[in-house]
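Re: the request from the purification team.
They wanted to know what the chain is likely to look like in 3D before they choose a buffer screen. I agreed to run a prediction and write the result into the notebook, where they can find it.
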Amino acid sequence: MHANPGTLEGAATGLHAVVSIPDDLRGQMSPGVIFCLERREDTDGTSRATVPLSLVYAPWDATDAPILSHPTRSLDLLRQLCEGHHEPLASLCAHFNRATRDGEDMSEYSALLTRAVAAAIRQGEEATLESLFTPGAIAQGALSEADFSLVSFVVLL
């Protein structure tokens, strides 16, 4: 970000990358997606969120398990996954493109995104409840999928 100021701000939303899970992290995580979600602002221009971005790790194999939504842990995992990769990994990108028919069939990823947004909403509801016990602060959680937009995502294979 420091080397290329303004580049990220001007980038399109929905950017994605595909990375492999290193052997030393396989015990900590499984294939899935880390989504970066942004809380949308209210119609009056004020944000209801204290933190407008959320990182949510949604593993493929956790159909009934809660989705991890711990930003610090997700950032650390994301750093470990992407560290040292400065160019797209051609074989993983080819695999992703075949599986999604070059992005035409994103239904599986849309389903994971729906689960990720639900986790972010739950996280917002928990923050709202916790704020009730903090003097002078009441944070309103997100109410629906419409309160979020997808910024980017990283596919973990």
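For the purification team: The two ends are 26 Å apart (CA to CA).
Please add any questions underneath this entry.
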